[in-house]
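Batch manifest, entry 17 of 40.
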Amino acid sequence: MKTFGPLPFALLLLLVPGQGFALELPRSGHPVFDRTVELVLDNFYDASALNRFSAAVRRQMTDERGSLTEKSSQDHVDAAVESVLASLGVSHTGRFTPDTIDYYELADIFRFAIRSDIKRLFPPDGEVHYAGIGMVTRLEDGLRFVSDVYDGAPADRAGIRVGDEILSVDGLPYREIASFRDKVGRPIDVRLRRHREGLPITITVAVERLQPLRTFEKAIESSVAITEREGRRIGYLRLWTLSTRDGLDIIARELASGRLKDADGVIVDLRGRWGGGPPDAAELFVGRAPTFRLIPRSGKETLANVTWRRPVVAIIDEGARSGLELFAYALKTSGIRLVGARTAGALLAGRAYVLPDDSLLELAVSDAVIDDGLRLEGRGVEPDIAVSFSLPYAAGRDPQLDAAMEEMQRILAKG
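Output type: structure tokens
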């Protein structure tokens, strides 16, 4: 057997479709790394990228930290997997571990793809859940700031705001999952700083058992609001994702017979978390079919088709990705004004796989091309009105929403 350094390795042979030659890749002996490589070679949508990927795999075998083996440290394996996946240079491709909120949200979104493992991962019934407060954070310049607060979730009800700097949870450093594990039903203390030079404050929040897709549906429903401006009623809704079962139905009901039915115009916020959903979701706002209801003898109406025909303004940023990005593109090409920042440029079709350590691999398995030959992957959708948003210490200020409100008022004033 051929050797590499002091350790033996096996070869993985793959005949690349349409290229007529075989790739020879070493096996590290580590099950997570080797399974990741195997899944990419078998399923990644772009065969032309596999030579680049293979080179990245070989580089990991000559890494200065030494060869990967079954006994390699977790940090070594994590870095190696991240590096080879990054070499593909596309969206919908990454590895997610159970210490992150992304893991649980993607597990629920891709529950059908991982159905053979779902009950084992989330016993006894396969319902994806985690202990949390409905808050997402990100690092900027070494400090951690709240980037998303799900409408109606515990963090929202307690008064945590986007832009708050998170200092600690119950006196310990913040961890996405570990800070709340085994605390469902109990209050926790979140210590934060709201203003750059301000004193820390403490907010008490009740931890809940969150089911990701149900949490998103609740957030969509809870986001709906009406604002009175100069005698006009301006509606607002936020589409956190299109991946929920009932999210679009919730919006349709609100538009047809709920809180938004008498609005003079609606602001659609596409600054979401995940895309997904049907490719024709934007038909709610740009469709041409008539709105109608089915009414049986019982009198209980069923909405068969809803199309909003009054003014619309949409807000976009890098959170608008995948299906939400296609939604934004459909609105723009129909003449609806987009306010905010360029979308993520992340429009491919992905699916999830369970790796040997129960982490999730999301992998791009299909390209996505719009009828006119346009690819939004790596490009995104540009706003008509560019408005930046500075996250640190935003303290509830939202210049992109403010600009969308101003644009809606301008449209309504033209009448």
